[in-house]
Amino acid sequence: MKQLGGVVKPKTRRSKRFLQNKEPKLTENVKNTMIMKGGNSSETVTQALKDLYALKKPNAVLYKKKNIMRPFEDSTSLEFFSKKSDCSLFLFGSHNKKRPNNLIFGRMFDFHVLDMIELGIEKFTSLKEVKNVKCAEGTKPMLVFSGELFDTDKEYTRLRSVLTDFFRGPTVPAVRLAGLDHVLHFTALDGKIYLRSYRVLLKKSGCRTPRIELEEMGPSLDLVLRRTHLASDDLYKTALRQPKGVKPKKKKNISHDAFGTKYGRLHMQKQDLDKLQTRKMKGLRKRKRDVTAESGETSSQKKSKAKK
Length: 308
Known about the structure:
Elements: E1 2-4, E2 7-9, H1 13-22, E3 33-37, H2 43-56, E4 60-66, H3 76-85, E5 89-94, E6 102-109, E7 112-125, E8 142-146, H4 149-152, H5 154-167, E9 182-189, E10 192-203, E11 211-216, E12 220-229, H6 233-239, E13 254-256, E14 262-264, H7 288-295, H8 299-307
Parallel strand pairs: 3-4, 3-5, 8-9
Antiparallel strand pairs: 1-2, 5-6, 6-7, 7-12, 9-10, 10-11, 10-12, 13-14
């Protein structure tokens, strides 16, 4: 690619497709994730990053080399890697005496850090330790959040939003029952977050609807909330703004109920029923005496008017 006057000119078809893929779109691409570890890392953190990368495949990039950085003190390195790899989500693992077994979940907006939440690993069970059948690569998981803190506390509410962005996967137009075979369950209780991963088993039930059982497949993490770096309300509102082309056009006087039934409202002027034209029938014709009674004039008065 050649850059002239600040404009990048592609020289090959591959580079042209790469630039077109990075252009702004009404419907954005699947959010990619970069997963990396810091200068100091423990075996627990390294294995946790590998297991979370296995859940995120193929929409993730795993950096195997160590990257000496401190995201809460200086985030320029993260922003550089985000722009280079075209990733809007990141997971950073580190380990030190003050904050052992540390994980930082975060997301970008316009290649700048929007939210960062630091979680500490207190207990970890890897995928290898759980001897059960695993889900296929690229399976879109079902996310379940339990606990009042996810609804009442601001930090936990934003954490739920970050985790939803991190694990939700691509947007699909339709759902197949057999494809719903992975559940990620997050529980907030007593200041801790419990992450559990289950495989859905569809068993025979004797009727059309199958009986559902959950089988733990790993990984399993007990996390504790540490530091947070949350975007301001104005920046967060700007990040959530949608282009006009995506928003459905509002039609006047048309509404839908909870079941999707469409209702329309018509506005009409008030009708004068006396002037309403009905079907002409002999039985409905007005007689002469009725007409004169309505006008209030007698026959003698009409004769006098005619003479004049």
